[in-house]
Write a structure and sequence with these properties.
By secondary structure, the protein is of the alpha/beta class. The chain has one domain (3-123): Glutaredoxin. Helix content is 37%, strand content 22%. The protein is built from five helices and five strands; from the N terminus they run H-H-E-H-E-H-E-H-E-E. A five-stranded mixed beta sheet has the order 1-3-2-4-5, with helices on both faces. The radius of gyration is 14 Å and the shape is globular. This is Bacillithiol system redox-active protein YtxJ. Pfam families: BrxC.
């Protein structure tokens, strides 16, 4: 890892990813996430692996989840690697794309969304 990667975050997200994340890497993964929203609320975290702010927000959000009293179903989307999926989410749910962004879905519909420092576990539970 280079000096600048250590300071600005680098692109080693996959190796550091927490076990509670469910990855969205295909339209099938997205469809499964939406299907799951009919049983309970789910959230999709859209993350830019090249953005220091996004990485900071992600780490803070992960700490909230790790310290939570209840389990939540959270999906992770690397929007740089899967930009067409990010665009599909924005279009299908009629939510303007932002990064980082948390979109909460219940019964196949968005019920909440937040970006940047407004992202919090309280939006899901």
């Amino acid at each position: 890892m280079s000096f600048f990667d250590k300071i600005f975050g680098g692109n080693n997200q996959a190796s550091d990813q927490k076990s509670f994340w469910k990855n969205i890497k295909s339209e099938e993964d997205l469809e499964k996430a939406i299907e799951s929203s009919y049983q309970h609320r789910i959230a999709i975290f859209k993350h830019s692996t090249s953005c220091f702010i996004s990485k900071t927000v992600l780490k803070n959000f992960e700490k909230e989840i790790e310290n939570a009293d209840q389990e939540v179903e959270v999906y992770y989307l690397d929007l740089l690697a899967h930009r067409p999926l990010s665009n599909k989410i924005a279009e299908d749910f009629e939510i303007r794309h932002e990064s980082p962004q948390l979109i909460v879905i219940e019964n196949g519909k968005p019920v909440n969304s937040a970006s940047h420092q407004d992202i919090s576990l309280s939006q899901i539970v």
